[in-house]
Amino acid sequence: ATGEAWQDIMLSCLPPKAKCDKQSENFDPTESCGSPFAYPYFISFYTLCSFLIINLFVAVIMDNFDYLTRDWSILGPHHLDEFIALWSEYDPDAKGRIKHLDVVT
């Protein structure tokens, strides 16, 4: 899960020189010889996955940070604008006071 010792797996997938060389005295035709493409495959796979995992990890942290710092206030600026417009109907002189009968209606 951590990617530790991935190079050992890569080296195991390479063809072993002693058992896969036909001129070697240890040649074993029944032995699976691996693939010379193990180097580019494992290096590109590990590089791609490590960058992908890092980006996903950072994205989760940033998303949670955005969620926690979001402004959860009930009233927004448009509510204040509506209140000012309605208040100015009842207090056209802008004295900051309205009649008690206007509150009920």
UniProtKB/TrEMBL annotation:
Domain Ion transport: from-to ranges: 1-72
Membrane topology: Multi-pass membrane protein
GO-annotated cellular components: voltage-gated calcium channel complex
Single GO biological process annotation from the record: calcium ion import across plasma membrane
Name of the protein in question: Voltage-dependent L-type calcium channel alpha-1 subunit
Molecular-function GO term, any one: high voltage-gated calcium channel activity
Location relative to the cell: Membrane
Membrane-spanning parts: 38-62
Keywords carried by this UniProt record: Calcium, Calcium channel, Calcium transport, Ion channel, Ion transport, Membrane, Repeat, Transmembrane, Transmembrane helix, Transport, Voltage-gated channel
Gene3D superfamilies to which the protein is assigned, alphabetical: 1.10.287.70, EF-hand
